[in-house]
Amino acid sequence: MIHDLDHKKKTGKKQQKQFDYSEIYRQLRTNLEFASLDKDELQVINLTSTNPAEGKSSVSANLALIYAAKYPKTLIIDCDLRKPVIHKIFRISNKTGLSNLLKDGVDVASIDINSSPYFERFKDKEDDGKLYVLSAGSKVYNPLELLASEKFSNLIAELRKKFNMIIMDCPPVSAVSDSIYVSHVSDGTIFVVSSKDTDKIQAKTAVTQLKRNGVNLLGAVLTKVQDSNTLNYYNYYSD
Ligand SMILES: Nc1ncnc2c1ncn2[C@@H]1O[C@H](COP(=O)(O)OP(=O)(O)O)[C@@H](O)[C@H]1O
Ligand SMILES: [Mg+2]
């Protein structure tokens, strides 16, 4: 189910299966579902972190695959318009994606997600196309403006009607405010912390910044534990 999603590996080379951490992601999905039991439903979730390379995109991709195993229609959106990698992870084209969908003035309400050029379906031996991928799209000079626009929030509102679950991969908090705007259109935000890379003080500053901006922090996912490819998670924001 969960694949070796290391996008830095050369494509074409036979992928070596690593530790199967699907159970950990299933647990994360269950915890998210429990977290939303007595509150509003979590249909749109975004992921961010303090700095680059802490594992946001990897966790987003794995989480999206785990949701796709459960629901008929799951969408992953690459909202990191500055350093997009979701298309590399799923080995799809990035010619048309989120930025184009926003700039082309597409009427999303009337789009058929199964035939639209903007949405790619991820299919392989074990995954039967229940995961849809909206890559970042062509490079733009104003990512913040696009993500802060009404067009973007309208897009997400329309996509809520078409998908059971939406996962949004975001840039880090330290450099740009993009993820704050994305968080404002999502139901909750997961904060990724790398045990290997993340600086505690910087992470605290990032969390404070998110909270100050009214972001609904759901909890944290800890990556790169003990230099193996394991992943742990814990909720330190929940009551
Ligand atoms: N849990 C993990 N354990 C070890 N390496 C990881 C883990 N998650 C991601 N990586 C590696 O770290 C690098 C950055 O990951 P990525 O998901 O692109 O981070 P980000 O989106 O935060 O920039 C990649 O080479 C990826 O393979
Ligand atoms: Mg990333």
Automatic annotation (TrEMBL):
Residues 50-230 form the CobQ/CobB/MinD/ParA nucleotide binding domain. GO terms for molecular function: ATP binding; non-membrane spanning protein tyrosine kinase activity. Pfam families: CbiA. GO terms for cellular component: plasma membrane. It comes from the Bacteria. Keywords: ATP-binding, Kinase, Nucleotide-binding, Transferase. This is Polysaccharide biosynthesis tyrosine autokinase. The lineage of its organism: Bacteria, Bacillati, Bacillota, Erysipelotrichia, Erysipelotrichales.
